[in-house]
Amino acid sequence: MKRWTAWQNWIAVAAGVYMLLAMTWTVDVGSSNAYMLTGGIVLIVVGVINLVSTSRPVAEWVQIVVSLLVIASPWMGAFATGTPAVAWSTWIPGVIALIASVMALQPAMKGYREHHAVGSH
C-alpha cells in the first residue's frame, strides 16, 4: 500500500475532524469539550501517522484502541446521559473510526508480511 492512499485512515482522520467541529454546535456538558478535543486530535494524529507510515499493524492497533477510547469517552467524562446530542457526536465518529481501523488492519498486516518476509537460508 502506498502512502496517503489508505481510505480507511482518511475516514479515521475525517472522524477526528468531525469531533472537533461538533464542539461548535453541541453544548459543553461537564468535560465533554475536553474529551471531544482530545479524542479528535488523537484520531487525526494517529490517522495521519498511519497514512504516512504504511504497512504498520501496530499503528493500526493503536488507532483501534484510540477509537475504542473515543467511544467510551462519554461514559468516562460523564456526559453520556442527559444530553444525547453531545454523546452521539462522540459515539458516531468513534464507531466509524473503529470500523475503518479494523478494515485497515488486514491490508497493513499483508503489507508488513510482504516487506518483512522471512527468507530461507
TrEMBL record:
Which InterPro entries does the UniProt record give?
A: SPW
Q: Where is the SPW repeat-containing integral membrane domain?
A: 7-101
Q: Please verify whether the record's keywords include Heme.
A: no
Keyword terms, alphabetized: Membrane, Transmembrane, Transmembrane helix
Q: Could you tell me which Pfam families the record lists for this protein? A: SPW
Report TM segments.
Answer: 7-27, 33-52, 61-80, 86-105
**What's the protein name?**
SPW repeat-containing integral membrane domain-containing protein
Organism per entry: Paeniglutamicibacter antarcticus
